[in-house]
């Protein structure tokens, strides 16, 4: 598939072929997927390997192997900072670390029971996860070593609620996640780790909407996007960039709904656009959004992702170490 780009590529699957478009507009075919049309792509942190769906790993030399996950698996994540492993909760709610190249090598790295979501800290030294605490205090969010040891509860969750889709920001001093409540409401939380400990913030979202598709940038430090779905099942993409002010992406075409896919440098966002009511895995139009407007990239896409070599964007001062103080409550 060639060396990862120095800056970034827009990548997408059309007719069972994986393509890449460089910033200068150069189009190349990266891989022939031989009849497969996955509905998701997830590039490794160094940008030289990609998950074409959770069940298939395409290596740099275009050789593909099975990951051992089912095609329907969710919450599969690369380890950091090199991407030598994958983590995901299994059907029993255990967080399983798995060698990316030898899927039979597995380690239980759970810091809680009934884990619903997890994220590697960009330094690779710690994992954040959500689940039922082993301390008798109920559901919560925890930070542990990358083997699940020395777990510290950094927040409580109300009973019958769950934290999902969590991700650290680029330097590792913010943890964003969606909190789904038992009454159907959703909130978007940001746990900010600074020299004084942890501070919880709620990012502004539309009341009574369902939140999903949290997309946190790995190439700048403040950009996130998410989907808000209202009671009529219409979905819109919202973004928050450096200013911290959230805004709805306005589509240039009517009767369409949008979902975020991945961030490119300079606060550009890849967005999937489908007709209202279309299935979530139906082919879509791929658009490139920025504060200056939107551009159509290509249509009839089955999957897409931003390909970035995260090391090229690593902070000069290194990743922010986690200074965790227990006791913050997420409500």
Q: What would your notes on this structure say?
A:
With 331 residues, this protein is mainly β. It has a single domain, classed as TolB, C-terminal domain (Neuraminidase, 6 Propeller), CATH 2.120.10.30. The chain is built from no helices and 28 strands. Strands 3-2-1-28 form a four-stranded antiparallel sheet, with no helix packed on it. A four-stranded antiparallel sheet has the order 4-5-6-7, with no helix packed on it. A hairpin with a 2-residue loop joins strand 18 (186-194) and strand 19. The chain is globular and about 55 Å long.
Descriptive keywords:
331 residues; mainly beta; Neuraminidase; 4-stranded antiparallel sheet; globular
Give a quick account of the main beta sheet: strands, pairing sense, barrel closure: 4 strands, antiparallel
Q: How many strands in all? A: 28
Give the proportion of residues in helices.
Answer: under 10%
Strand content is over 45%
- Domains (count): 1
Low-pLDDT regions: 325-331
Helices, by number, come to 0
- The CATH topology label is Neuraminidase
Q: What general outline do the C-alpha atoms trace?
A: globular
What do the pLDDT scores average to? 87
Radius of gyration (Å) = 19 Å
Q: How are the SSEs placed, and which strands pair?
A:
Elements lengths: L8 E6 L2 E6 L4 E6 L8 E3 L6 E3 L3 E3 L5 E3 L10 E2 L6 E5 L5 E5 L6 E3 L4 E8 L5 E7 L6 E7 L6 E5 L5 E7 L5 E7 L5 E9 L2 E7 L6 E7 L7 E6 L5 E6 L5 E3 L7 E9 L3 E8 L8 E7 L2 E9 L1 E5 L24
Antiparallel strand pairs: 1-2, 1-28, 2-3, 4-5, 5-6, 6-7, 8-9, 9-10, 10-11, 12-13, 13-14, 14-15, 16-17, 17-18, 18-19, 20-21, 21-22, 22-23, 24-25, 25-26, 26-27
């Amino acid at each position: 598939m060639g060396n990862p780009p120095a800056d970034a590529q827009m990548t997408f699957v059309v007719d069972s072929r994986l393509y890449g478009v460089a910033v200068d507009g150069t189009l190349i075919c990266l891989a022939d997927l031989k009849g497969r049309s996955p509905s998701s792509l997830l590039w490794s942190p160094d940008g030289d390997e990609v998950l074409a769906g959770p069940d298939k790993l395409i290596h740099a030399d275009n050789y593909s192997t099975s990951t051992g996950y089912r095609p329907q698996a969710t919450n599969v994540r690369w380890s950091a900072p090199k991407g030598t492993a994958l983590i995901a909760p299994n059907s029993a709610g255990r967080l399983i670390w798995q060698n990316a190249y030898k899927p039979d090598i597995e380690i239980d790295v759970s810091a809680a029971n009934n884990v619903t979501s997890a994220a590697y800290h960009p330094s690779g030294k710690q994992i954040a996860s959500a689940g039922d605490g082993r301390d008798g205090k109920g559901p919560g969010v925890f930070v542990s070593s990358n083997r699940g040891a020395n777990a510290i509860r950094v927040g409580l969750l109300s009973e019958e609620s769950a934290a999902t889709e969590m991700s650290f920001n680029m330097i590792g001093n913010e943890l964003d996640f969606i909190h789904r409540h038992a009454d159907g409401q959703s909130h978007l939380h940001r746990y900010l780790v600074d020299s004084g400990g942890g501070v919880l913030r709620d990012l502004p979202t539309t009341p009574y909407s369902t939140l999903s598709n949290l997309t946190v940038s790995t190439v700048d430090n403040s950009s996130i996007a998410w989907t808000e779905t209202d009671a009529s099942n219409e979905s819109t993409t919202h973004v928050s960039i450096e200013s911290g002010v959230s805004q709805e992406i306005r589509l240039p075409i009517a009767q369409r709904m949008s979902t975020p896919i991945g961030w490119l440098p300079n606060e550009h966002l890849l967005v999937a656009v489908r007709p209202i009511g279309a299935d979530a895995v139906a082919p879509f139009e791929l658009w490139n959004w920025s504060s200056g407007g939107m551009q159509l990239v290509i249509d009839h896409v089955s999957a897409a992702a931003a390909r970035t070599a995260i090391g090229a964007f690593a902070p000069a001062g290194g990743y922010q170490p986690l200074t965790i103080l227990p006791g913050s409550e997420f409500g």
